[in-house]
Amino acid sequence: MLRLRPLRARAIARTLFAPTGLAEAIERLGFVQADPIRAPARAQDLILRLRVLGYGAGTLERAYAALSVEEEYLYAYGFATEALSSLLHPRVLPGRLSALDKKVLALVAAADTLHPRELDAHLGRRRVVNAWGGFSQATKRALERLHHRGLLRVARRESGVRVYQVVPPAAQQLSPDLRLQKLALAVANVLAPVAEPTLLRITTRLRRWLPKAGPAKAQLASLLHDGTLVADELSGVRYLWPAADGAHDEPPRVVRFLAPFDPLVWDRTRFEQLWGWAYRFEAYTPVHKRVRGYYALPLLWRDEIVGWANASALGGSLEVDVGFVSGRPKERDFNRELAAEIERLRVFLRSEPATLPAETAASAE
Q: Does the bond joining 286 to the residue before it have cis omega, within 30 degrees of 0?
């Protein structure tokens, strides 16, 4: 039976490992979630700044073409290693390519790499309703569909906009069951210790692209049976993690601002069990209903998430407002460590070429 503090320590130590090189950090994580909002920086940059030596905002976008990574959808949209990307394709998806999809695919193939605006001269700027109820260009949606099908990849980004190129249809040597097990293990590697219901839910969604695979529950049972995953229970919830995990030291006495999609806080149910309060991402919450702020960053102190920070980098200066769940920590070194984290954030943001106003940043993609 797990105890709370050791489970916290395991969760912190396995994801907030000692900072290393960019390629090494991505390889260790396997997947880094992305989000276009910059308040004060994109989620992928906020996640990597805690895990990469000397990381500055925008580094991943600038280095992307030279890295062995792909933009992919796993349990969310983000950046995956080539090995993980290869497991995700081919996907079995409903329907056939539309006439527009075929035209877009042919144009990308003829251009080698193609920026979405280059399609306008050929196909116009017709708009369609997107998944969020707003409007997107029809050609942009076609590019996204082709990318999701594995027919296009993101070659690079220009000012945050995806530039695409054609890739050959993927071949797959692994059986559907083994692919699904490896995908489940990849998710567990990112989110461990992961609550079994959370991993089961994600694996079930992944199985929609692998209809010939056995039930998701059977895949997790197989990973547990052969010892690839291990499990233990805390207060009625079973947690799973890769068997290769070793012993974990106590978390250091430092303050860290976490991205809203950081692996440590991604599962809100686990968050509540481990830290005793409800954290919600409020960027899309009406202003008058927000409790903690537009883009509140969970504030980790030692092994406790004691509050949140709202950071604004507009006008060339950084302003950080902090709030606390149960009052400001009274340890004498907390204020010093909080100031040190604010300074680290300031240095990180200096490499960002431009900052978008927070309320309009969501339209950057």
A: no
Question: Residue type for 314, please?
Answer: L
- Cβ-based neighbour number of residue 227 at 10 Å: 8
Which domains does the chain show, CATH number per domain? 99-166 (1.10.10.10), 255-364 (no CATH)
Q: What angle do CA 261, 19, 62 make, to 5 degrees?
A: 70
- The one-character DSSP state at 20 is B
Q: What's the distance, CA 207 to chain centroid?
A: 20
Tell me the two tokens of residue 160: 């945050």
Residue 320's DSSP bridge partners are: 311
Dist CA 28 CA 22 (whole Å): 10
The H or E element containing residue 139 is: helix 138-148
pLDDT of 316 higher than 60: yes
H/E element, 205? helix 196-207
Q: What is the pLDDT of residues 292-305, one digit of tens each?
A: 999 999 999 999 99
Q: What's the pLDDT tens digit per position in 191-229?
A: 999 999 999 999 999 999 999 999 999 999 999 999 999
* In contact, 126 and 137? CB cutoff 8 Å: yes
Contact 184, 200 (CB under 8 A): no
**Two tokens, residue 268:** 């809100």
In which residue are the tokens 């071949």 written?
171
Q: Which helix (H) or strand (E) holds 166?
A: strand 161-166
Of 142, 112, 139, give the one whose Cα is nearest residue 124: 139
What kind and span of H or E run contains 309?
Answer: strand 304-312
Give the pLDDT mean for 158-167: 93
Q: How far is CA 104 from the centre of its chain?
A: 28
What pLDDT does 169 receive?
A: 82
